Amino acid sequence: MFAGISSEMKNAKRYSLEDKNMDIYNSKPHSIRAFRVTDMRINPPKWFMDAYHAGGVAVTNNSKDKYVVIYNKDGIRKAFIGDWVCMNSHGTIFPLSNDEFNNGFVADSVSQYVK
To answer: Which of 1-15, 34-48, 55-69, 82-96 has the lowest mean pLDDT?
Structure first.
């Protein structure tokens, strides 16, 4: 049927979710800290300012491009106006677009009132 498929692939056992040796795993819910980049005159949270002073993030505010630069183990990432800057429980800072953020996270109603 398909040229180039080896005989091993043709004869390979197919697994289904009903196989006795396979289990289904769900990811654990996790919390992050985050703020939305609304303009370059942001009033960022303390964890962001700590990372800024340590050189982990930078803010670019020239007339052409305005964004937050994030340096992490994945390389250099950018958060533009409207994006979210997030920090996970391991201290890794990363950007998410507004759509990615809204699809993955909801506000914790208790933490909104805790300063």
So the answer is: 1-15
Residue 96 lies in a domain: yes
CA–CA separation, 94 vs 92, rounded Å?
Answer: 6
Asked whether residue 90 is domain-assigned, the answer is: yes
Identify the three-state secondary structure at position 3. Answer: coil
Distance between CA atoms of 33 and 96, rounded to whole angstroms? Answer: 12
**Domain range for residue 72?**
26-113
Longest dimension (CA), the chain: 64
Please tell me which residue, 51 or 11, carries the higher pLDDT value. 51
pTM reported for the whole predicted model: 0.67
